[in-house]
Amino acid sequence: MITQKMLNFGIVFLVGGGVCALAQLLIIKTKLTPARILIIFMFAGVVLQATGAYQHIYDFAKFGISLPIVGFGAALTKGAIEYTQQYGILGAFAGGLVKTAFGVGLAVVASYLVALLFKPKAKR
User: Fold this and answer.
1) Cα dihedral sign for 53, 57, 63, 67?
2) Which of 2, 25, 73, 90 is 20 to 30 Å from 31 by CA-CA measure?
3) What is the C-alpha separation between 60 and 56, in angstroms, rounded?
């Protein structure tokens, strides 16, 4: 018997995997670099959040859409919109940074710890 929790995990897996599969298809089938695909996906998150569509997708997919880079773009936009409403135009510059600071800080600390644990090697 499938429980609601298992169904939620399946939805998250399928949506997150679909986003990653789309990125992989773009890498394989186009001449776009991974960096450009990253920017396209982040900009998609910005557009989805700005138009209000992101919340509807999030209500269905939860972390399946918020953990890929699409969610980062949406978080930047959400912060910019909220802080602009509270503090005016200067809030647009700070809001995105405030909303994403924890994730960025965690990524920096994790990167540092990985660099301490493993010996990096230059590509040949």
Assistant:
1) negative
2) 73
3) 7
